[in-house]
Every structure is written in C-alpha cells, then in structure tokens.
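Dear colleague,

Following up on yesterday's call, I've attached the two folding results inline so they're easy to grep. Please treat them as preliminary; we haven't cross-checked anything against experimental data yet. The first protein's sequence and structure tokens come first.
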Amino acid sequence: MACLRESVLHAGYKMALHLVTIFLLMTAPTAFIDFSTVLAQEAGADLDKLRSEITRLEELVREQRNQEAQTLEYLETIDRKISLTRDLIRELDTTSKALEKKARALKKQETSAGKKLEELRKVYQRRLVSLYKYGRIPVLELLLTARNLNEVAVWGEYQRRLSESDLRLMQKIRKNIDQLESARTELTATLKKQQAVLRESREKEKQLAGDKKSKQALLKKVRRNRQTYQRQLRNYREEIKKVQQLIAALRRNSRNSRPAGSRSPHPQRTGQKGSPPCVAS
C-alpha cells in the first residue's frame, strides 16, 4: 500500500516537473530541445512502470473477486447447514419433551400401582393374621351351627378362593409394575441418547455460527481490499492519460522548436526544382 501511494506521489511530482519543463521549453525552445527529448524518454519509462503496476493491480483485483465469490459460496453452505441443524434441534427438542412427558406418566402409573400393591399386601396380611388368631373359633362355631358339612366346605372354599384372588391380583399388579418400570427404563435410555444428540447439535450450531462470523469478517476484508485496488487502478489510469498527454506535448514542442530553415535528414524527392523539403510531422 505504501509503495503504491509513493508511486502515485512520484508520478504527481514527475507530472509537475514535466509541466514546468514544457513551460520553459515554450519560452526558450532552442535551448531545451535535447532536454525535452530526454524528458520524453523518461516519461516513457514512467509510463511502462505505471502499466506494469496496473497489470499487477488487475491481477490482485481478479484474485480478490475470486476469493469473494468463494467466500460467498461458503457462507451460503454454512447458512444451509445452520438451517438444517436448527431444524434438527427443534425436532430433537420436541421429541425429548414428549419422551420426558411420557416418562413422567409411566412413573406416575408405576407409583400408583405400587401403592395399590402395598394396600393389597396389607389387606392380605391382616386377613392372614385375623384368620390365624380368630380362625379357630369361627371354624368351631361353624361346625356347631352348620346344618351340614356342605356349609363347612363352602366356607372353606370361599376362604381359599379369596386368598387366591388376592394373590392373583397382587401378582398382576406386580407384573404391571415390572412392565411399567421396564418401559420407563427403556424410555429413559432413549431420552438420554436424544439429549446427547441435542447437545451435540447445539454445539455444532455454535461452531457454525462462529465459522460464519469469521467468514463474514473475511468477506468484508476482501471487499475492502478489492475496492482499494480498484481505486488505485483508477488513479494509475488517470496518471497514464496525463503521462501520455505529457509525452505528446513534449514531442510536439520538440518538433515545433527546431530552428527555422532546418532540413529533414531525409528530404523528400518530388522531381521539381526548388521544392521545399518535407518536415516530418
């Protein structure tokens, strides 16, 4: 950048010098004919340098444009990835919440079934204790008051079936509790996996967002560089026009400043006597 600014300042300085020289040539042409030629040659060398700088800057502009296009394409890819990741996060979050709700419902059912089982156990235990403590007296009374042995058999069958019913009911509730617990355990494992993927997806979203921010900063820098190079290109092209105008002016001044009556080193032969020699234009 500093070299470019120095080149531009140098060109401006050279321009000022050339303009002064032209002024001197116009006021005293015969004294500066050779000096005008030297200045024209020097301006031509400066013109070559400016053209070389323009070629270099044009290449830099092309590189910046290519990098800008690549960065924009990469940013579009990042935006698509971020969008897909966010969709996945929303889906996983919804699924996780549904699984959590279902797990809470299973836990509630399991707790309710456990309470019922505990109540049945207590009832069954009280019945066994009552039967053990007072069962002999009712049986003796039944034997004494029963009209026949059939009533005794019916009462015994009733007690047996009642006990079996309590046992079956408790077994059924216990089985239900086991199933609920198994389902909840499996659901909890699935939920943990979902939450792990959800965490990874959120981390990926943060990473993509950071990458996007970095690429946006790079894009801003690339565009700024391209604009700087383009501005320098415009300045150099303007300088080229000025140098070209200077060279043309020096050449015109060199031709116009020749002494009167000077002949061209290669006069044109026309075949007529006394015809004046042609002056190179």
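Below is the second protein, in the same order (sequence, then structure):
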Amino acid sequence: MKKIAAVSAFVAVISGFALRAGEDGGLKPLYEVRGFGGSGRFQVIHSAHVDETTGTLTVLSEAPLRLSVFNTFDGSSLREIEIFGEAKTPLSVAGCGGYFYVGTAEGVRVLREDGRIDRDRSRAFPGGAERLLCDRQGNLVFLDSDAGAVSKYSSDGKPVFEVRRGEKGQAPRLESATDVAVDYTGAVYIADYEAGDVKKFSPEGKYLGVFGGDDRVARSEVRCSLVSADARRNIWVYDDFDGKISVFDSFGFPAGEIETGGAVDSAAMIHVDRLGRLFVLDAGDGAVKVFGVQGGL
C-alpha cells in the first residue's frame, strides 16, 4: 500500500484513512469512558459492547463486578448494575434486545435489565464465551477460543450454526480464532490469528472465503487480533504486535492503514459504528476511547 500523507508524528494516512488529531497535532479521542460517573479509571476492565440500536455502550468491569452503561453520543453515564455471584469468571458482555449477556468460562449468563439472571435463557447458551456480540436481527454470536469454536444462536436460544477448529484439508481451516464481528447484513467475520487472515461466513454459516469471499486475495502480513465491520462492510483489523489497524474493503483488498501511535496502550476490543467512530477498549489504560475517523467512510 502506498503511503500518501501524514497527519502528524502520531498517525499516518494510507489510502485515505486516519484517526483525527487534536489541534496540537497529537492523536486524541473524541471522548473517553474511564468509570461510571467520571470516576477516573476502571480497576479491571474485561469487555465492552456497542449497541447501535439503542445508542449505548456497555462495559463489564470488576472491583466490584458490574455492568456500566453509557451514552455513545458523548460518553455520559446512564446506569450501573452490580453482578452478585452470577459470573465467576467474566470474559465478555453484550447488551441487546432488553437483556445483558455476560460471557464466562462456564457459559453465557443472561441478565434482565434489572440485573437479575434469567436462568431459563442462560441454559440455552452452553460453552464459554471469550467474545460476545449481537447482530441487528437480535441473534447472539460468541467465540469460545478454548474450544476453537464460533457459535451463532437466535434470540430465543436456538442454534443457527457453529464453526470449529478444522483439520488440514478442511475448508475453512480455522486455526486460532481470536475475535469475531458481524456486519449490517448479518455476515460473520472471524479473525484467525495463526492463519493471518479473517474468514467470512454468511448469516446462515456458509463459508464465503477470506476477506469477502475471494480466496485469490493474497494474505497480508497483518496479525489478526481484533476485527470489526463498518456500515460499508469494510473490515477493520487490529494487529496487537505493532498497534496498527488495517482496513480492507468488502472484496478483501487493502483500503487503508492507521497507526495508533501512543494513543492506545493495549486494545482488547474495536468497533466502528455507522457514524464512522472507532471505539477501542484500552485494557492497559483502563478506558474505552472513541476516535473520529477521517476519510474513507
């Protein structure tokens, strides 16, 4: 990819993408969420989920174990729910359809909006859930990295499909899934760290290929740690080795590259919303940071 511009010492623009810089040229987020009610910093932050239907950001954190809900418009605090004994090993969270889904090593715990567990719904989602999200149709998609599986369930707990770690010669061969994303059509994308690619599946679970369905697309040098799909079905891939975000179009071809510089310490989640804002859960800094993106969207 040809480098065509540089915004500052902190961010490079390649093929028209960049994180917006502050007036002093430094890379700054639009806002940061660092604790409920502006408390300064999450002690231990496990996961975050953006629900674009309700315009809310849900953060799962500890000390004590709780869910914190924020307005995605400006990061203002909306509500907080403490979780008592319902999630011993919390890993992930998703808030959608009037429920909070908390992924644990033992399974998915489903909480009502008042914080009480819905045990009937919880029994419908077996297995661990290191990463958890909902699509626009209310289906639940979760990643169990220990089992090497990505599963999709309908909102009432019925299995839709499952993709498991494959053997040589099997298509697709899923080697080391580290993250999962869905786009606005319901297509599912799985970041495969060891393979160095992102595999795409239809809403029904049919394998469509690498980065949009064309296996002829050459693999990049990107270490695919985290993945997100934007409103135009561009695929955003975070490389935890150098903190770089690579953007691919819906056909799997490189569309841009973003260097986060020192703005992100240790990303554990990325999400690009329909307004073109990039949400980054920075576990190393105990915050969720929201950046504006210029160009390309």
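For the second protein, one point worth flagging: The two ends are 18 Å apart (CA to CA).

Best wishes,
A.L.
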